[in-house]
Amino acid sequence: MGEQPELPVTPPSVDWWMTSLCNLTCDYCWGPVPSKDDRSLRSVIAESILASRTPAVTFCGGEPLVVGDDVWTYSRAFREAGKKTILNTNGELLESSLDRDPQRAITDHFDVVGISVDAVDPDVHRDMRGKRATLARAMKAISLVRDSGVQLKIATVVSNVNKDHIADMARVVNETIQPSVWRLYQYSSRGEYNRGVDRHRLDTEEFVAVTEEAKRIAGNVNVAASESATASCFIVSQEAKILLPVGDDYEVLGDVRHDSIDSLWRQDPLAPEVVAYKTWLQRV
Ligand code: SF4
């Protein structure tokens, strides 16, 4: 057996659940259960990330753009500290969030913006992401990111509901969207707020078949597919906890109010999986 590569001294990215709130109601959400966020914790969490050697911060949640100006303030601070910043958003609020401040430019805040699109058929996209989801707004967000010159990631959850529409989407990804990376995630039943297990469940064999076909159709587009069993992130929650994805749930590894992120990373039993899961980030 070959030697395992040495682990980095810090997570390749800290995934910051900025908020538990979201403007959409996807029934496959593996994020936090919506509740009243303690906003005062955001500055503590941001300081903890700034003090760590992590090279990248991913803003997620919940929907990071529902928190008003905070996501723009902290992303700027991380950029100025030399960290790469990634925004993961459903895209619906990007245009209005930019319009709130005419000085705001995506390029000043983010290196990569990930937009969630689960199908290029508006009805299927809505069937995946709830009745408030509008494909047109997500596509508008895509064009704003493309026009800005910031790298674009398209994020697609593949489940039993949309599996037959992924090939059509691969054609549009190849011919029109041309993102820097297309991430395909196998539906995962993880998370307390994840209510759609029965209709979304998709076995790994089928996921692999769907994603292999998508890769073939997507041509030169960089496609990175992750099976739910191997999906792992280094998450700091809106409650300042470091969360370990374990089975269908999350366990608490520590609290960034008491321990440094880099010391908690050294205790993370899933660190090798996190490194593997974030490999795509080095390619954008
Ligand atoms: S999956 Fe994302 S967009 Fe959907 S409800 Fe959860 S946080 Fe919101």
Structural commentary:
With 284 residues, this protein is of the alpha/beta class. It has a single domain (14-283), classed as TIM Barrel. 33% of the residues lie in helices and 19% in strands. The protein contains 10 helices and 10 strands. The chain has helices at 41-51, 70-80, 94-99, 122-129, 135-148, 166-177, 197-200, 204-218, 261-266, 271-277, and strands spanning 14-17, 56-60, 84-89, 112-116, 151-158, 181-186, 223-226, 235-236, 241-246, 249-255. Strands 7-6-5-4-3-2-1-8-9-10 form a 10-stranded mixed β-sheet, with helices on one face. Iron/sulfur cluster (SF4) binds at residues 22, 24-26, 29, 31, 61-63, 90, 129. The site of iron/sulfur cluster has 11 residues, from loops.
Assigned CATH superfamily: Aldolase class I
CATH level-3 fold name: TIM Barrel
Number of strands: 10
Q: Write out the distinct hetero groups bound to the structure.
A: iron/sulfur cluster
CA(first)-CA(last) distance:
30 Å
Identify the CATH class. Answer: Alpha Beta
Listing every helix as H and every strand as E from the N terminus to the C terminus, the arrangement reads: EHEHEHEHHEHEHHEEEEHH
Number of helices: 10
| Proportion of residues in β-strands | 15-25%
Domain Radical SAM core: 8-220
Pfam families: Radical_SAM
GO molecular function, one term: metal ion binding
Protein name: 4Fe-4S single cluster domain-containing protein
